[in-house]
Amino acid sequence: MGGEDYYLELCERPVQFEKANPVNCVFFDEANKQVFAVRSGGATGVVVKGPDDRNPISFRMDDRGEVKCIKFSLENKILAVQRTSKTVDFCNFIPDNSQLEYTQECKTKNANILGFCWTSSTEIVFITDQGIEFYQVLPEKRSLKLLKSHNINVNWYMYCPESAVILLSTTVLENVLQPFYFRAGTMSKLPKFEIELPAAPKSTKLSLSERDIAMATIYGQLYVLFLRHHSRTSNSTGAEVVLYHLPREGACKRMHILKLNRTGKFALNVVDNLVTSVIFDIKLRGESDGTVTFHHPVLPARSIQPYQIPVAGPAAVTSQSPVPCKLYSSSWIVFQPDIIISASQGYLWNLQVKLQPIVNLLPDKGRLMDFLLQRKECKMVILSVCSQMLTESDRATLPVIATVFDKLNHEYKKYLDAEQSYTMAVEAGQSRSNPPLKRPVRTQAVVDQSDVYTHVLSPFVENKEMPHKFVIAVLMEYIRSLNQFQIPVQHYLHELVIKTLVQHNLFYMLHQFLQYHVLSDSKPLVCTACLLLSLESFYPPAHQLSLDMLKRLSTANDEIVEVLLSKHQVLAALRFIRGIGGHDNISARKFLDAAKQTDDVMLFYTIFRFFEQRNQRLRGNPNFTPGEHCEEHVAFFKQVFGEQALMRPTTF
């Protein structure tokens, strides 16, 4: 299998820690994403490493028994260590605070602590087999204050730090789950819900296993994922993942079922809003029965890309070949959303999705775009797909190209509308509203006209081997899509079409596009009109067409003249200004300057004579007045054509 087939990979720079062994115990904190390597109960050292902090935290603590659980509070301010089933010990890591340990015993009589979770830098939850206890830690007083507690029989628990939700498993079958939500010193009890267990023979005692449950945020919503292993006696083709949506308010509902179509052991991760082990995307269309949407894998199943463990040590030693990593090892432990830990090898990896290999595994371009537009790092892959579908070897049909452009512009329009709404709200003084307005985030899914022009259309037009009819059809399809979504078309796209038509001598088609406003008028199209003026010698109607176009842009008359002069179209500028009746008020010097810069003496003669005639008509004298500042041009005219060429005043 080629490397291009693998779409899942382990990150290049894993967190490396001391392997688990009889002396060294390894713990993972799901909130801070930190690995703790605890040697000899901490007496010979504790090393804490996380994916983002390359400087590990190292310290020692007294060996006061086996460590069951160890975690820092958020921001690493307070360390909590559980050594017994009744108490949790604390130690401050705050400057100028006492580092003497202090202890908190669980309040519920005869209860055993199953574990604890930090919900902030100074708030912690004890989960016992008889309920939960929510505390505020007071580091300066070296004590804890009970904020709230709730009694309930607990089999096991799960914590989602991103959502600050703890899930408690209750009842004999362990399948009734009670969620609690924590925020800023408050604990809220959410409605409990039941996980539907698969049918099983009566002789089998079935219960919900903690291993088959995960909590993860997908597309901004919290879900409980249940890996349901179907009984071999059932008619099912394999296991499935059931997604229960857990809202802040309202009941938890079964929303999606992911059909794995396989049996065996599975590890669930959520990467870039995709559920793996095989790839599922709940945003893509599935089959619905009215309450639940069924999804099949988006892609064919693939292993994680083979991974080489680099050899650590001095430079002389590192020249050795890297050691292949045993994938899907029995020592692997999976944590949400995207973490894989091998305690026996001493590595913590983030699982990643590679988008480029997926391009060849999803032949349906529309579905591929739906998939890519939801991914974080999608823009360059999307642009490469657009370029690829316009190549000779992989050329897509126009309806497919239209579908792709429409999907891109749908996202583009959503962003433009959100940005406009935000701007209007700020201008209306709503920026201090509660909750405060948030500026729309420009994600990589926003592929704008400059992106498509630079990376797709411009190189595409430069390809001389591509049939020009197809080139023009693609350009017009993109403009059609922009118009459909009421997105103003940028002038450089119109210019690209016009230049392409001119290049292939398709003047009549250009005439039609402009006459019937397929290429719409706008101020930046002054440059386009100027381009048309220069085509008069090839296509005579181009001149009148351009003037008509310029006249329609009536608000830009001065700008039109400036552009024409800058492009040395001096006569065209004069014709235009005469056409709109403004030639009596224009600056003679500006036109004479422009004419002189062309180094065309006959053009200069024509422009000079025009203004002499204007002076004669308006003032009865062809000479320029001192206020017109044309002395140097009069001198130049005399130098080139002689004084006798100057126009004489006409007397009646």
Automatic annotation (TrEMBL):
Keywords: Autophagy, Endosome, Lysosome, Membrane. It is found in: Late endosome membrane; Lysosome membrane. Pfam families: RMC1_C, RMC1_N. GO terms for biological process: autophagy; regulation of autophagy. One of its GO terms (cellular component) is late endosome membrane. Residues 375-626 form the Mic1 domain. Its main location: membrane. It comes from the Eukaryota. Residues 26-144 form the Regulator of MON1-CCZ1 complex N-terminal domain. Belongs to the RMC1 family. Component of the CCZ1-MON1 RAB7A guanine exchange factor (GEF). Acts as a positive regulator of CCZ1-MON1A/B function necessary for endosomal/autophagic flux and efficient RAB7A localization. PANTHER family: COLON CANCER-ASSOCIATED PROTEIN MIC1, REGULATOR OF MON1-CCZ1 COMPLEX. This is Regulator of MON1-CCZ1 complex. The lineage of its organism: Eukaryota, Metazoa, Chordata, Craniata, Vertebrata.
